[in-house]
Design a protein that fits this description.
With about 300 residues, the protein is an alpha/beta fold. The protein has nine helices and twelve strands.
Length: about 300
């Protein structure tokens, strides 16, 4: 210390210690501020407007046909994923069907969950083969839980092996305010149904006579459903799955408020701690380590 006093006669030990104290306290407040402390709560009213969309996706074996690349089912899943990306305040649900229809995802605004459930869809999740469009429409109609909300059903299928009363079910859906849209997956010329063992192709599905089964798009029934359902029919191809056109049409449907709730949220108070830290750092910079004329009379750290 005597060496410092000889080199810097005006050096103030007390001010040096004081600067160090201010610096430490400033850093403490800065760390607390960066941790974003949340204190208290506030009430926020959330209002969301949109429509409910229930997608009924055909997962029968014929949807594995590759007349649309990579195949009908995968193309449909890709299109649904892109549709989910475009949704804002709308809610979405997914039904899968083949010989029977099952709810894969109830109506939700959780788009991350929708994508997760979508990724798990393949023909094995429905054990009974066929194309039960009427059952899918009936299940979709019952899945909507808000009578005052605008609703739409989008049926994505090749329409082959159609059974049931799809037109009658569509009329009942329209009676309760639901619009029904259809997308035809596949080409009218048809395509064989590939058989796989894991990722290895074994060949193509054959009938009892050993002939290769060719699956063709049944546009007639899908056009009738869309006409009765106050919707539109779109045929998918290799460049587009038709969902964009249908989504533009659905977007013209009046969006109604479907959720109005009051929830609490914590208020961030980091700004106070950051502010105090900045003030302390400024004070620390303003303190010089040299003695003032009156500081010699003050001995805060003098030994007794």
């Amino acid at each position: 210390m005597s060496v410092i006093n000889r080199l810097i006669p005006d050096f103030s030990k007390e001010k040096s210690i004081l600067k160090f104290i201010f610096l430490i306290i400033a850093y403490v407040f800065l760390i607390i501020g960066l941790a974003n402390p949340q204190i208290g709560s506030k009430l926020v009213k959330g209002e969301r407007k949109g429509i409910d969309i229930m997608i009924a996706l055909d997962v029968s074996n014929s949807m594995l046909a590759e007349d649309i690349q990579p195949n009908r089912l995968e193309k449909a899943k890709q299109a649904i994923s892109k549709l989910i990306d475009k949704l804002k305040n709308d809610r979405i649900g997914i039904i899968v069907f083949a010989g029977k229809a099952y709810t894969q995802l109830p109506i939700t605004s959780d788009y991350a969950a929708a994508k997760m459930f979508l990724s798990t869809i393949d023909p094995t999740i429905v054990p009974v083969q066929g194309t039960a469009i009427s059952e899918a429409i009936r299940l979709a109609t019952k899945s909507f839980n808000d009578e005052n909300h605008n609703k739409a059903i989008i049926i994505i299928t090749d329409g082959e092996d159609h059974e049931g009363q799809a037109i009658e079910e569509t009329k009942q859906a329209v009676d309760v305010g639901i619009s029904v849209f259809t997308i035809g997956m596949g080409l009218p010329d048809g395509s064989p149904i590939p058989l796989y063992n894991g990722n290895k192709r074994l060949g193509y599905k054959k009938d009892n006579n050993g002939n290769t089964v060719v699956t063709k798009l049944n546009e007639s029934i899908l056009q009738q459903i869309a006409s009765e359902g106050n919707g539109i029919y779109v045929r998918a191809n290799n460049t587009s799955a038709g969902l964009r056109t249908i989504f533009q049409k659905i977007n013209k449907i009046e969006k109604k408020e479907y959720e109005s709730r009051v929830f609490s949220d914590f208020e961030s108070r980091f700004q106070y701690f950051i502010g105090i830290s900045i003030i302390l750092l400024i004070i620390e910079l303003l303190i010089v380590e040299r003695k003032s004329k009156w500081s010699g009379k003050i001995k805060l750290f003098q030994e007794k």
